[in-house]
Amino acid sequence: MQRDIFRFLSILLLVLTGWNTIQSQSTMLPSGHHWHDFVQRMEIKSGGSASQFHFALQPLERKGMVEFLQEADSAARRLTRTDRFLIRDIVQSNAEWSGAPADTSRRPLLKHFYRTPSDFYRRHNEGLFLVINPVIHFGLGTETDRSLHLYQNTRGLEIRGMINDKIGFYTYMADNQARFPLYVNRKIQQQQGAIPGEGWNIPFGEQGYDYFTARGYIAFQATENIGFQFGQDRNFLGYGQRSLLLSDYGNNYLFLKINTRIWRFHYQNIFARLVDWPLRTYGGRMFDPKYMAAHTLSFNISDRFQLGVFENVVFGRSDTLTPRRFDAHYLNPVIFYRAVEHHIGDPDKVSLGVFWRWIAGHRMAFYGQVYADDFHIGDIKYDIDTMLVYMGLRGERKYDLHASFRHKFGLQKGMHWVDFLGIDNLDLQMEGNWIRPFVYSHYSADGSGLRPASSYSHYSQSLGHPLGANLRELMVSLQYTPHPDWLLKTTLFSARQGMDSAGINMGSNLFRDYVSRVGDYGHTFLQGELRTWSYLQLGASWQWRPNVWFDLQYILRSEEQAGVEIRSGIFMAGLRVNALKRNHWF
User: Fold this and answer.
1) Residue 586 is assigned to a structural domain of this protein
2) Phi and psi at residue 510, in whole multiples of 5°?
3) What is the distance, to the nearest Å, from the Cα of residue 567 to the centroid of all Cα atoms in its chain?
4) Owning domain of residue 230
5) For the chain, percent helix, then strand, then coil, each to nearest 5?
6) Which CATH number characterizes residue 400's domain?
7) Which DSSP state fits 285?
8) For the segment 480-499, what is each residue's pLDDT rounded down to a tens digit?
9) Cβ neighbours of residue 239 under 8 Å, at least 6 residues apart?
10) How far out from the chain centre does Cα 319 lie?
11) pLDDT tens digits along 435-489
Protein backbone atom coordinates (compact mmCIF):
# COMPACT_ATOMS: atom_id res chain seq x y z
CA MET A 1 0.00 0.00 0.00
CA GLN A 2 2.85 2.38 0.78
CA ARG A 3 4.86 1.55 -2.33
CA ASP A 4 5.12 4.47 -4.72
CA ILE A 5 3.11 6.60 -2.32
CA PHE A 6 3.77 9.89 -4.13
CA ARG A 7 2.39 8.67 -7.47
CA PHE A 8 -0.68 7.29 -5.75
CA LEU A 9 -1.38 10.53 -3.91
CA SER A 10 -0.94 12.66 -7.02
CA ILE A 11 -3.39 10.60 -9.06
CA LEU A 12 -5.85 10.41 -6.17
CA LEU A 13 -5.84 14.17 -5.63
CA LEU A 14 -6.47 14.83 -9.32
CA VAL A 15 -9.39 12.45 -9.32
CA LEU A 16 -10.93 13.78 -6.11
CA THR A 17 -10.71 17.43 -7.03
CA GLY A 18 -12.07 16.96 -10.53
CA TRP A 19 -10.85 18.70 -13.67
CA ASN A 20 -13.64 21.25 -13.80
CA THR A 21 -12.95 22.51 -10.27
CA ILE A 22 -9.22 23.11 -10.79
CA GLN A 23 -8.24 26.78 -10.70
CA SER A 24 -5.47 28.50 -12.66
CA GLN A 25 -2.03 27.63 -11.30
CA SER A 26 1.27 29.47 -11.46
CA THR A 27 4.74 28.02 -11.69
CA MET A 28 7.35 28.99 -9.13
CA LEU A 29 10.32 31.31 -9.25
CA PRO A 30 13.42 29.06 -9.18
CA SER A 31 15.04 28.72 -5.78
CA GLY A 32 17.94 31.15 -5.41
CA HIS A 33 16.72 33.56 -8.11
CA HIS A 34 17.87 37.13 -7.46
CA TRP A 35 14.30 38.39 -7.94
CA HIS A 36 13.55 37.06 -4.44
CA ASP A 37 15.85 39.77 -3.04
CA PHE A 38 14.06 42.46 -5.02
CA VAL A 39 10.60 41.25 -3.94
CA GLN A 40 11.64 41.42 -0.29
CA ARG A 41 13.01 44.92 -0.89
CA MET A 42 9.62 45.93 -2.28
CA GLU A 43 7.82 44.44 0.72
CA ILE A 44 9.95 46.53 3.07
CA LYS A 45 9.45 49.69 1.02
CA SER A 46 5.69 49.00 0.99
CA GLY A 47 5.75 48.99 4.78
CA GLY A 48 4.07 45.62 5.20
CA SER A 49 3.95 41.98 4.19
CA ALA A 50 2.39 41.11 0.85
CA SER A 51 -1.14 39.69 0.90
CA GLN A 52 -0.43 37.50 -2.15
CA PHE A 53 2.20 35.28 -0.47
CA HIS A 54 4.21 34.70 2.69
CA PHE A 55 7.78 35.48 1.73
CA ALA A 56 9.35 33.01 4.18
CA LEU A 57 7.87 30.08 2.25
CA GLN A 58 10.03 29.94 -0.85
CA PRO A 59 10.16 29.58 -3.79
CA LEU A 60 7.47 32.15 -4.54
CA GLU A 61 4.69 31.75 -7.08
CA ARG A 62 5.14 33.91 -10.16
CA LYS A 63 1.46 34.88 -10.15
CA GLY A 64 1.54 36.25 -6.61
CA MET A 65 4.85 37.98 -7.25
CA VAL A 66 3.51 39.82 -10.30
CA GLU A 67 0.29 40.86 -8.53
CA PHE A 68 2.26 42.19 -5.58
CA LEU A 69 4.75 44.13 -7.71
CA GLN A 70 1.96 45.74 -9.72
CA GLU A 71 0.34 46.77 -6.46
CA ALA A 72 3.65 48.00 -5.01
CA ASP A 73 4.31 50.06 -8.14
CA SER A 74 1.49 52.40 -7.09
CA ALA A 75 1.47 51.93 -3.30
CA ALA A 76 5.11 51.74 -2.17
CA ARG A 77 6.86 54.88 -0.97
CA ARG A 78 9.80 56.53 -2.69
CA LEU A 79 10.34 54.03 -5.45
CA THR A 80 13.52 54.79 -7.33
CA ARG A 81 13.82 54.88 -11.09
CA THR A 82 15.62 51.53 -10.94
CA ASP A 83 12.82 50.05 -8.80
CA ARG A 84 10.21 50.98 -11.41
CA PHE A 85 12.30 49.64 -14.28
CA LEU A 86 12.85 46.34 -12.47
CA ILE A 87 9.15 46.02 -11.67
CA ARG A 88 8.36 46.52 -15.32
CA ASP A 89 11.01 44.01 -16.43
CA ILE A 90 9.76 41.34 -14.02
CA VAL A 91 6.14 41.92 -14.95
CA GLN A 92 7.00 41.72 -18.65
CA SER A 93 8.96 38.51 -18.14
CA ASN A 94 5.83 37.03 -16.51
CA ALA A 95 3.26 38.74 -18.70
CA GLU A 96 0.88 35.77 -18.55
CA TRP A 97 -0.11 37.04 -15.09
CA SER A 98 0.07 40.79 -15.65
CA GLY A 99 -3.16 41.31 -17.59
CA ALA A 100 -1.24 43.27 -20.23
CA PRO A 101 0.27 42.04 -23.52
CA ALA A 102 3.94 41.17 -23.50
CA ASP A 103 6.42 43.44 -25.25
CA THR A 104 7.37 42.41 -28.76
CA SER A 105 10.88 42.44 -30.16
CA ARG A 106 11.71 44.74 -33.04
CA ARG A 107 13.72 42.06 -34.79
CA PRO A 108 12.69 38.51 -33.82
CA LEU A 109 15.04 35.69 -34.74
CA LEU A 110 13.78 33.78 -37.81
CA LYS A 111 10.32 35.28 -37.14
CA HIS A 112 9.50 32.70 -34.44
CA PHE A 113 12.22 33.08 -31.81
CA TYR A 114 12.70 35.95 -29.36
CA ARG A 115 9.42 37.50 -30.41
CA THR A 116 9.37 38.73 -26.82
CA PRO A 117 12.67 40.11 -25.46
CA SER A 118 12.90 37.75 -22.47
CA ASP A 119 11.94 34.43 -24.06
CA PHE A 120 13.56 32.35 -26.79
CA TYR A 121 10.22 30.77 -27.69
CA ARG A 122 6.84 31.80 -26.31
CA ARG A 123 3.39 30.51 -27.19
CA HIS A 124 0.14 31.62 -25.60
CA ASN A 125 -3.28 30.59 -26.86
CA GLU A 126 -6.49 29.33 -25.27
CA GLY A 127 -5.21 25.84 -24.46
CA LEU A 128 -1.49 26.24 -23.92
CA PHE A 129 0.99 28.69 -22.48
CA LEU A 130 4.59 27.68 -23.16
CA VAL A 131 8.01 29.28 -22.67
CA ILE A 132 11.22 27.57 -23.79
CA ASN A 133 14.62 29.06 -23.02
CA PRO A 134 18.18 27.82 -23.51
CA VAL A 135 20.39 27.62 -20.43
CA ILE A 136 24.07 28.50 -20.86
CA HIS A 137 26.75 29.20 -18.28
CA PHE A 138 30.36 29.56 -19.39
CA GLY A 139 32.91 30.63 -16.82
CA LEU A 140 36.68 30.74 -16.58
CA GLY A 141 38.86 31.63 -13.63
CA THR A 142 42.12 31.35 -11.73
CA GLU A 143 43.08 30.44 -8.17
CA THR A 144 46.11 31.48 -6.14
CA ASP A 145 49.07 29.09 -6.37
CA ARG A 146 47.25 26.75 -8.71
CA SER A 147 48.27 26.13 -12.31
CA LEU A 148 44.97 24.60 -13.38
CA HIS A 149 42.28 27.03 -14.51
CA LEU A 150 38.80 26.94 -12.98
CA TYR A 151 35.87 26.61 -15.34
CA GLN A 152 32.12 26.11 -15.56
CA ASN A 153 30.47 24.72 -18.70
CA THR A 154 26.68 24.36 -18.53
CA ARG A 155 24.28 23.74 -21.43
CA GLY A 156 20.64 23.02 -20.92
CA LEU A 157 16.99 23.85 -21.37
CA GLU A 158 14.31 25.48 -19.23
CA ILE A 159 10.60 24.97 -19.97
CA ARG A 160 7.61 26.35 -18.12
CA GLY A 161 3.96 26.68 -18.96
CA MET A 162 0.30 25.94 -18.30
CA ILE A 163 -2.28 23.64 -19.85
CA ASN A 164 -5.81 25.08 -20.16
CA ASP A 165 -4.81 27.66 -17.53
CA LYS A 166 -5.25 24.89 -14.94
CA ILE A 167 -2.09 22.77 -14.74
CA GLY A 168 1.26 24.47 -14.38
CA PHE A 169 4.48 22.69 -15.26
CA TYR A 170 8.20 23.38 -15.13
CA THR A 171 11.36 21.50 -16.08
CA TYR A 172 15.05 22.34 -16.06
CA MET A 173 17.71 20.06 -17.54
CA ALA A 174 21.40 20.85 -17.88
CA ASP A 175 24.65 19.00 -18.54
CA ASN A 176 27.61 20.38 -16.60
CA GLN A 177 31.37 20.10 -16.50
CA ALA A 178 33.30 22.08 -13.92
CA ARG A 179 36.59 22.46 -12.12
CA PHE A 180 35.95 24.01 -8.72
CA PRO A 181 38.16 25.92 -6.28
CA LEU A 182 40.10 23.74 -3.85
CA TYR A 183 37.88 24.63 -0.87
CA VAL A 184 34.86 23.31 -2.84
CA ASN A 185 36.81 20.12 -3.61
CA ARG A 186 37.43 19.67 0.11
CA LYS A 187 33.72 20.06 0.77
CA ILE A 188 32.96 17.45 -1.90
CA GLN A 189 35.30 15.03 -0.12
CA GLN A 190 33.58 15.73 3.21
CA GLN A 191 30.24 14.98 1.53
CA GLN A 192 31.41 11.59 0.27
CA GLY A 193 31.78 12.89 -3.28
CA ALA A 194 28.53 14.88 -3.57
CA ILE A 195 28.87 18.30 -5.23
CA PRO A 196 27.20 21.02 -3.12
CA GLY A 197 23.74 21.65 -4.52
CA GLU A 198 24.02 18.68 -6.86
CA GLY A 199 24.18 14.91 -6.66
CA TRP A 200 25.83 12.06 -8.47
CA ASN A 201 28.82 12.89 -10.67
CA ILE A 202 31.81 11.35 -12.41
CA PRO A 203 35.40 12.60 -12.75
CA PHE A 204 36.08 14.79 -15.77
CA GLY A 205 39.56 15.60 -17.03
CA GLU A 206 42.07 16.68 -14.44
CA GLN A 207 40.39 17.52 -11.10
CA GLY A 208 37.09 18.21 -12.87
CA TYR A 209 33.54 16.90 -12.47
CA ASP A 210 30.80 15.95 -14.90
CA TYR A 211 27.23 16.04 -13.56
CA PHE A 212 23.65 16.41 -14.74
CA THR A 213 21.06 18.71 -13.18
CA ALA A 214 17.35 17.92 -13.47
CA ARG A 215 14.41 19.65 -11.81
CA GLY A 216 10.74 19.49 -12.68
CA TYR A 217 7.22 19.57 -11.28
CA ILE A 218 3.54 19.96 -12.00
CA ALA A 219 1.24 22.20 -9.99
CA PHE A 220 -2.47 22.82 -9.79
CA GLN A 221 -4.90 24.79 -7.65
CA ALA A 222 -7.57 22.39 -6.39
CA THR A 223 -9.70 25.15 -4.89
CA GLU A 224 -9.33 28.88 -4.45
CA ASN A 225 -7.45 28.26 -1.20
CA ILE A 226 -5.68 24.90 -1.66
CA GLY A 227 -2.89 24.20 -4.15
CA PHE A 228 -0.69 21.18 -4.89
CA GLN A 229 2.80 20.80 -6.29
CA PHE A 230 4.49 17.48 -7.13
CA GLY A 231 7.98 17.10 -8.51
CA GLN A 232 11.70 17.31 -7.85
CA ASP A 233 13.21 20.59 -6.68
CA ARG A 234 14.46 22.45 -3.58
CA ASN A 235 12.62 24.49 -0.95
CA PHE A 236 13.66 27.25 1.43
CA LEU A 237 12.16 28.61 4.63
CA GLY A 238 13.07 32.02 6.02
CA TYR A 239 14.07 35.60 5.22
CA GLY A 240 17.85 35.42 5.35
CA GLN A 241 20.85 34.22 3.39
CA ARG A 242 20.87 31.10 5.55
CA SER A 243 18.01 29.00 6.83
CA LEU A 244 18.39 26.90 9.94
CA LEU A 245 14.98 25.30 9.37
CA LEU A 246 15.00 24.22 5.70
CA SER A 247 17.62 25.47 3.25
CA ASP A 248 18.16 25.11 -0.50
CA TYR A 249 21.85 24.25 -0.04
CA GLY A 250 21.55 20.58 -0.95
CA ASN A 251 20.51 18.53 -3.94
CA ASN A 252 16.99 18.43 -5.39
CA TYR A 253 14.55 15.90 -3.92
CA LEU A 254 11.16 14.43 -4.76
CA PHE A 255 8.26 15.99 -2.88
CA LEU A 256 4.53 16.55 -2.71
CA LYS A 257 3.63 20.01 -1.41
CA ILE A 258 0.22 21.24 -0.25
CA ASN A 259 -0.32 24.99 0.20
CA THR A 260 -3.44 26.12 2.05
CA ARG A 261 -4.08 29.86 2.23
CA ILE A 262 -6.95 31.27 4.28
CA TRP A 263 -7.18 34.91 5.36
CA ARG A 264 -3.82 35.81 6.95
CA PHE A 265 -2.70 32.18 7.27
CA HIS A 266 -0.50 30.09 4.98
CA TYR A 267 -0.25 26.43 5.95
CA GLN A 268 2.21 24.30 4.00
CA ASN A 269 2.79 20.53 4.01
CA ILE A 270 5.82 18.87 2.39
CA PHE A 271 6.15 15.10 2.04
CA ALA A 272 9.55 14.24 0.56
CA ARG A 273 11.60 11.22 -0.48
CA LEU A 274 15.27 11.82 0.26
CA VAL A 275 18.40 9.82 -0.57
CA ASP A 276 20.73 8.40 2.07
CA TRP A 277 23.87 8.58 -0.06
CA PRO A 278 26.36 6.95 -0.48
CA LEU A 279 25.39 3.32 0.00
CA ARG A 280 24.69 2.64 3.64
CA THR A 281 23.64 -1.01 3.48
CA TYR A 282 25.37 -4.08 2.11
CA GLY A 283 25.34 -4.82 -1.62
CA GLY A 284 23.25 -3.51 -4.50
CA ARG A 285 23.46 -0.31 -6.50
CA MET A 286 20.26 1.46 -5.50
CA PHE A 287 20.86 4.26 -3.02
CA ASP A 288 18.97 3.87 0.25
CA PRO A 289 15.78 5.93 0.67
CA LYS A 290 14.91 8.14 3.60
CA TYR A 291 11.90 10.38 4.05
CA MET A 292 10.82 13.74 5.41
CA ALA A 293 7.48 15.21 6.39
CA ALA A 294 7.23 18.88 7.34
CA HIS A 295 4.48 21.35 8.00
CA THR A 296 4.68 25.09 8.43
CA LEU A 297 2.07 27.58 9.60
CA SER A 298 2.79 31.22 8.78
CA PHE A 299 0.55 33.97 10.16
CA ASN A 300 0.48 37.68 9.35
CA ILE A 301 -0.32 38.89 12.86
CA SER A 302 -0.34 42.41 11.46
CA ASP A 303 0.65 44.01 8.19
CA ARG A 304 4.15 44.48 9.58
CA PHE A 305 4.70 41.37 11.72
CA GLN A 306 4.84 37.83 10.33
CA LEU A 307 5.21 34.80 12.60
CA GLY A 308 5.57 31.14 11.68
CA VAL A 309 5.95 27.76 13.34
CA PHE A 310 7.59 24.71 11.77
CA GLU A 311 7.72 21.00 12.56
CA ASN A 312 9.69 18.36 10.72
CA VAL A 313 10.37 14.64 10.93
CA VAL A 314 13.09 12.67 9.10
CA PHE A 315 13.15 8.88 9.10
CA GLY A 316 15.20 6.27 7.31
CA ARG A 317 15.94 2.55 7.32
CA SER A 318 14.69 0.40 10.16
CA ASP A 319 17.48 -2.17 9.71
CA THR A 320 20.48 -2.90 7.51
CA LEU A 321 18.77 -5.24 5.05
CA THR A 322 15.14 -4.20 4.58
CA PRO A 323 14.32 -0.65 3.44
CA ARG A 324 11.78 1.27 5.43
CA ARG A 325 8.88 2.68 3.42
CA PHE A 326 7.16 5.99 3.94
CA ASP A 327 5.36 5.67 7.26
CA ALA A 328 1.64 6.32 6.66
CA HIS A 329 1.31 7.80 10.16
CA TYR A 330 3.11 10.92 8.92
CA LEU A 331 0.67 11.47 6.03
CA ASN A 332 -1.77 13.11 8.42
CA PRO A 333 -1.43 16.80 7.44
CA VAL A 334 -2.86 18.20 10.71
CA ILE A 335 -1.11 16.39 13.54
CA PHE A 336 1.97 16.96 15.69
CA TYR A 337 4.75 14.69 14.45
CA ARG A 338 6.19 14.37 17.94
CA ALA A 339 2.95 12.66 19.04
CA VAL A 340 3.15 10.29 16.06
CA GLU A 341 6.80 9.52 16.79
CA HIS A 342 5.95 8.62 20.39
CA HIS A 343 3.11 6.45 19.09
CA ILE A 344 5.40 4.32 16.88
CA GLY A 345 8.29 4.07 19.36
CA ASP A 346 10.50 7.20 19.12
CA PRO A 347 12.83 6.03 16.32
CA ASP A 348 12.73 9.15 14.17
CA LYS A 349 14.17 12.65 14.21
CA VAL A 350 11.61 15.35 14.99
CA SER A 351 12.50 19.03 15.11
CA LEU A 352 10.61 22.25 15.80
CA GLY A 353 11.17 25.80 14.69
CA VAL A 354 9.88 29.36 14.89
CA PHE A 355 10.54 32.21 12.44
CA TRP A 356 9.50 35.84 12.34
CA ARG A 357 9.92 39.17 10.58
CA TRP A 358 8.99 42.68 11.62
CA ILE A 359 8.98 45.48 9.05
CA ALA A 360 9.86 48.75 10.76
CA GLY A 361 8.69 51.75 8.75
CA HIS A 362 9.57 51.66 5.05
CA ARG A 363 13.32 51.16 5.32
CA MET A 364 14.14 48.35 7.74
CA ALA A 365 13.09 44.81 8.62
CA PHE A 366 14.25 42.53 11.42
CA TYR A 367 13.97 38.76 11.15
CA GLY A 368 15.01 35.60 12.90
CA GLN A 369 14.62 31.87 13.47
CA VAL A 370 14.87 29.36 16.29
CA TYR A 371 15.48 25.71 15.46
CA ALA A 372 15.30 22.98 18.13
CA ASP A 373 16.13 19.30 17.77
CA ASP A 374 15.68 18.58 21.43
CA PHE A 375 15.24 20.42 24.72
CA HIS A 376 15.08 19.05 28.25
CA ILE A 377 13.14 21.15 30.74
CA GLY A 378 14.77 19.47 33.73
CA ASP A 379 18.23 20.60 32.61
CA ILE A 380 17.33 24.30 32.39
CA LYS A 381 17.92 24.86 36.10
CA TYR A 382 21.55 23.74 35.69
CA ASP A 383 22.19 26.29 32.95
CA ILE A 384 20.40 29.07 34.85
CA ASP A 385 22.56 28.30 37.87
CA THR A 386 25.74 28.54 35.75
CA MET A 387 24.55 31.78 34.12
CA LEU A 388 23.83 33.44 37.48
CA VAL A 389 27.34 32.64 38.72
CA TYR A 390 28.86 33.88 35.45
CA MET A 391 26.94 37.17 35.77
CA GLY A 392 28.02 37.61 39.39
CA LEU A 393 24.50 37.30 40.75
CA ARG A 394 25.37 34.19 42.74
CA GLY A 395 28.61 33.42 44.55
CA GLU A 396 28.88 29.72 43.80
CA ARG A 397 27.11 27.07 41.81
CA LYS A 398 24.41 24.94 43.40
CA TYR A 399 24.72 22.15 40.82
CA ASP A 400 27.75 20.43 39.32
CA LEU A 401 25.99 19.64 36.03
CA HIS A 402 25.39 22.05 33.17
CA ALA A 403 25.38 22.32 29.34
CA SER A 404 23.35 19.22 28.52
CA PHE A 405 23.83 17.68 25.07
CA ARG A 406 20.01 17.57 24.86
CA HIS A 407 19.88 21.32 24.40
CA LYS A 408 20.23 21.09 20.64
CA PHE A 409 19.05 24.36 19.16
CA GLY A 410 20.09 27.11 16.78
CA LEU A 411 19.32 30.82 16.65
CA GLN A 412 19.31 33.28 13.77
CA LYS A 413 18.97 37.07 13.97
CA GLY A 414 19.09 39.38 10.99
CA MET A 415 18.33 42.81 9.60
CA HIS A 416 17.55 44.32 6.20
CA TRP A 417 18.03 48.04 5.55
CA VAL A 418 16.97 49.19 2.10
CA ASP A 419 18.32 52.42 0.59
CA PHE A 420 21.02 52.25 3.24
CA LEU A 421 21.97 55.66 4.70
CA GLY A 422 19.61 57.30 2.22
CA ILE A 423 21.53 56.02 -0.82
CA ASP A 424 19.08 54.89 -3.47
CA ASN A 425 19.27 51.21 -4.50
CA LEU A 426 21.91 50.34 -1.88
CA ASP A 427 20.70 47.57 0.46
CA LEU A 428 22.41 46.28 3.60
CA GLN A 429 21.80 42.90 5.15
CA MET A 430 23.36 41.66 8.40
CA GLU A 431 22.82 38.21 9.84
CA GLY A 432 24.08 36.10 12.70
CA ASN A 433 23.68 32.35 13.22
CA TRP A 434 24.47 30.46 16.42
CA ILE A 435 24.11 26.65 16.53
CA ARG A 436 24.86 24.43 19.54
CA PRO A 437 26.62 21.03 19.34
CA PHE A 438 24.82 17.93 17.98
CA VAL A 439 22.11 19.90 16.14
CA TYR A 440 20.81 18.12 12.99
CA SER A 441 22.39 14.78 14.09
CA HIS A 442 20.60 11.63 15.24
CA TYR A 443 21.34 8.15 16.58
CA SER A 444 21.42 4.76 14.86
CA ALA A 445 17.83 3.69 15.53
CA ASP A 446 18.38 0.14 14.26
CA GLY A 447 21.54 -0.42 16.30
CA SER A 448 23.50 -1.37 13.20
CA GLY A 449 26.47 0.83 13.98
CA LEU A 450 26.17 2.47 10.56
CA ARG A 451 25.78 6.22 10.20
CA PRO A 452 22.32 7.40 11.35
CA ALA A 453 19.91 7.43 8.42
CA SER A 454 17.68 10.03 10.10
CA SER A 455 20.19 12.87 10.27
CA TYR A 456 18.79 16.12 8.86
CA SER A 457 20.38 15.59 5.48
CA HIS A 458 19.84 14.54 1.88
CA TYR A 459 22.47 13.15 -0.46
CA SER A 460 25.22 13.72 2.14
CA GLN A 461 24.28 17.42 2.35
CA SER A 462 22.66 19.31 5.19
CA LEU A 463 19.01 20.32 4.94
CA GLY A 464 19.78 23.11 7.41
CA HIS A 465 22.97 25.13 7.75
CA PRO A 466 25.62 23.92 5.25
CA LEU A 467 28.42 23.95 7.85
CA GLY A 468 26.57 21.67 10.26
CA ALA A 469 26.51 22.52 13.98
CA ASN A 470 28.57 23.81 16.92
CA LEU A 471 29.26 27.12 15.20
CA ARG A 472 28.91 30.88 15.24
CA GLU A 473 28.60 32.77 11.97
CA LEU A 474 28.26 36.44 11.06
CA MET A 475 27.35 37.76 7.61
CA VAL A 476 27.29 41.26 6.11
CA SER A 477 26.10 41.94 2.57
CA LEU A 478 25.86 45.14 0.54
CA GLN A 479 23.95 45.07 -2.74
CA TYR A 480 23.89 48.07 -5.08
CA THR A 481 21.75 48.31 -8.21
CA PRO A 482 22.66 51.64 -9.83
CA HIS A 483 20.87 50.66 -13.04
CA PRO A 484 18.32 47.91 -13.87
CA ASP A 485 21.01 46.08 -15.83
CA TRP A 486 23.78 46.35 -13.22
CA LEU A 487 24.11 44.41 -9.99
CA LEU A 488 27.05 45.00 -7.62
CA LYS A 489 27.30 42.88 -4.50
CA THR A 490 29.77 42.44 -1.66
CA THR A 491 29.30 39.63 0.85
CA LEU A 492 31.41 38.87 3.90
CA PHE A 493 31.12 35.75 6.05
CA SER A 494 33.06 35.07 9.22
CA ALA A 495 32.62 31.90 11.25
CA ARG A 496 34.05 29.89 14.12
CA GLN A 497 33.28 26.20 14.59
CA GLY A 498 34.26 23.60 17.16
CA MET A 499 35.49 20.51 15.31
CA ASP A 500 36.07 16.93 16.45
CA SER A 501 39.30 16.54 18.38
CA ALA A 502 41.35 13.31 18.45
CA GLY A 503 38.39 11.45 16.98
CA ILE A 504 36.06 12.53 19.81
CA ASN A 505 32.59 13.62 18.66
CA MET A 506 32.28 17.30 19.56
CA GLY A 507 28.94 17.80 17.82
CA SER A 508 29.82 19.61 14.59
CA ASN A 509 29.38 16.67 12.19
CA LEU A 510 25.67 15.95 11.66
CA PHE A 511 26.48 12.56 10.07
CA ARG A 512 28.01 11.14 13.27
CA ASP A 513 25.88 9.22 15.75
CA TYR A 514 25.46 11.54 18.73
CA VAL A 515 25.54 8.51 21.05
CA SER A 516 29.32 8.55 20.47
CA ARG A 517 29.61 11.75 22.53
CA VAL A 518 31.51 11.81 25.83
CA GLY A 519 28.95 12.17 28.62
CA ASP A 520 25.62 13.99 28.77
CA TYR A 521 26.78 17.29 30.29
CA GLY A 522 29.53 19.82 29.82
CA HIS A 523 28.90 20.22 26.09
CA THR A 524 29.62 23.90 25.66
CA PHE A 525 29.24 26.14 22.65
CA LEU A 526 32.22 25.92 20.22
CA GLN A 527 33.75 23.00 22.14
CA GLY A 528 36.49 21.01 20.43
CA GLU A 529 39.30 22.05 18.11
CA LEU A 530 38.53 25.56 16.91
CA ARG A 531 38.22 26.18 13.19
CA THR A 532 37.91 29.74 11.91
CA TRP A 533 37.17 30.85 8.40
CA SER A 534 36.36 34.04 6.53
CA TYR A 535 34.96 34.55 3.08
CA LEU A 536 34.81 37.81 1.10
CA GLN A 537 33.11 37.91 -2.28
CA LEU A 538 33.06 40.92 -4.60
CA GLY A 539 30.81 40.59 -7.62
CA ALA A 540 29.64 42.68 -10.57
CA SER A 541 27.02 41.54 -13.08
CA TRP A 542 25.83 43.32 -16.24
CA GLN A 543 22.68 42.31 -18.11
CA TRP A 544 23.34 42.78 -21.81
CA ARG A 545 19.81 41.83 -22.78
CA PRO A 546 17.01 40.13 -20.79
CA ASN A 547 18.41 37.10 -18.93
CA VAL A 548 21.86 37.40 -20.58
CA TRP A 549 24.44 38.29 -17.90
CA PHE A 550 28.18 38.92 -17.89
CA ASP A 551 29.76 38.30 -14.48
CA LEU A 552 33.01 39.26 -12.76
CA GLN A 553 33.73 37.84 -9.33
CA TYR A 554 36.61 37.86 -6.87
CA ILE A 555 36.73 35.68 -3.75
CA LEU A 556 39.21 35.96 -0.89
CA ARG A 557 38.93 33.05 1.51
CA SER A 558 40.96 31.96 4.53
CA GLU A 559 40.63 29.00 6.87
CA GLU A 560 42.64 28.07 9.96
CA GLN A 561 42.61 24.96 12.13
CA ALA A 562 45.22 23.38 14.39
CA GLY A 563 47.71 26.13 13.50
CA VAL A 564 47.42 25.47 9.76
CA GLU A 565 46.12 28.36 7.64
CA ILE A 566 44.86 28.01 4.06
CA ARG A 567 44.37 31.20 2.06
CA SER A 568 43.15 31.47 -1.50
CA GLY A 569 42.22 34.19 -3.95
CA ILE A 570 39.83 33.28 -6.75
CA PHE A 571 38.91 35.29 -9.83
CA MET A 572 36.09 34.24 -12.16
CA ALA A 573 34.56 35.74 -15.31
CA GLY A 574 31.60 34.28 -17.10
CA LEU A 575 28.50 34.46 -19.26
CA ARG A 576 25.07 33.30 -18.06
CA VAL A 577 21.98 32.87 -20.23
CA ASN A 578 18.86 31.97 -18.20
CA ALA A 579 21.18 30.42 -15.61
CA LEU A 580 21.27 31.20 -11.90
CA LYS A 581 24.46 32.13 -10.08
CA ARG A 582 25.30 29.38 -7.58
CA ASN A 583 27.32 30.70 -4.65
CA HIS A 584 29.51 28.34 -2.62
CA TRP A 585 29.24 30.14 0.71
CA PHE A 586 30.99 27.79 3.13
Assistant:
1) no
2) -70, -15
3) 28
4) 5-106+137-577
5) 15, 45, 40
6) 2.40.160.130
7) S
8) 999 999 999 999 999 999 99
9) 40, 55, 56, 355, 357, 365, 367, 414, 416
10) 30
11) 999 999 998 877 777 788 889 999 999 999 999 999 999 999 999 999 999 999 9
